């Protein structure tokens, strides 16, 4: 691929239309595996993947939209209901990335955890050389927007994570100062849940994790009577718990129906994706099992409190989105202008060499002639430079294509990669290039 160019295509399966099982089906592979697979496909120059508990998304950069759509076709092939698979063109992909980072697309409006997840996905993609100029700058711009909206607005006031939302739901159903809670897992989601439960006055906390040191670290961070155990002790810990919150990365359920079928009244919240708690546990009369699909009701109050802030964030995202497109256009035009100047410089150098070879000039006189040649090139190219930038701003790529034909004798009439298939292709998004964050 020449320069920082191409068209972004995306696909997503998210909580707004999909179930937990749909999202799990789309995110069967790891982020790193998805990026590696996509970049190995013909015509894919860059790839990025974001998997969280409530979304599965992938993006590619190709020379044209059709190639991008084809590359992403198999990403959600295991999702049974195709109606929940949303395919995005260039502009929709960019706007969606900004909205996700801003917390506008989260179950808990404005939650902070998504920013860390995007940063982690960014590092995963970089680790397998999946990012190039386009997606690298697009994702960094999204992170910048996410940080800005949280610094400048109240979008993250109140319940700010799925873990704290789960704790809020549990607190509505249980007398926490009289309860023992079991948190299974010691990652970010489990940590947020454990802290939120402790902050609400939980009596006793047990953290079960595959590696005991991680569980012990989490226990040391909460101000409550707490104990760390390994998953080998999960059965006994479950029997003694009034509240169970699970958030592991296991591919299979870690808690079966029979683990909860002892007649004890329990509240169970499954924050994992795929599910940590066997679906059959919902049939138990003494157990209330909630999962990510149930968070919508829990967060209604939070959404109401943040509605005004969200309107401000919507305006901010749209402003940043417009700046992003303008930056892409300027970069694309600058690449074409650079090609024009390089062609002119070649002609100038050739003609200068011919002229100076015929003249007997001293150093000062040679400098005058060379300065005159530079000035002529600059003055002659100033009007077309402005016209090309105006053409890019108006998406007039036919003018830019014509300019390449006029100023570059070696240009054969087929657009280079940075113009790609955009000229004359109504399905191709024209506003692409590299983002330089000059905010």
Description:
The strands form two sheets. The chain has a six-stranded parallel beta sheet with strand order 7-6-5-8-9-10. 50% of the residues lie in helices and 13% in strands. The two termini are 28 Å apart. It folds into two domains: 1-158 and 301-439, Glutamyl-tRNA reductase, N-terminal domain (Beta Polymerase, domain 2, 2-Layer Sandwich), CATH 3.30.460; 162-298, Rossmann fold (3-Layer(aba) Sandwich), CATH 3.40.50.720. The protein has 439 residues and is of the alpha/beta class. The chain has 15 helices and ten strands. Helix 11 (257-260) links the parallel strand 8 and strand 9.
Tag the structure with descriptive keywords:
single chain; 439 residues; alpha/beta; Beta Polymerase, domain 2; Rossmann fold; 2 domains; Glutamyl-tRNA reductase; NADP; oxidoreductase; 4pyrrol_synth_GluRdtase_N; NADP binding
Strand order across the biggest sheet? 7-6-5-8-9-10
Instruction: Report the average pLDDT across residues.
Output: 85
Bin the helical content.
40-55%
Cα gyration radius (Å): 28 Å
CATH topology of the largest domain: Beta Polymerase, domain 2
Q: Structural class given helices, strands, pairing? A: alpha/beta
Euclidean distance between termini CA atoms? 28 Å
CATH class of the largest domain: Alpha Beta
Low-confidence stretches: 411-439
- CATH H level of the largest domain: which superfamily? Glutamyl-tRNA reductase, N-terminal domain
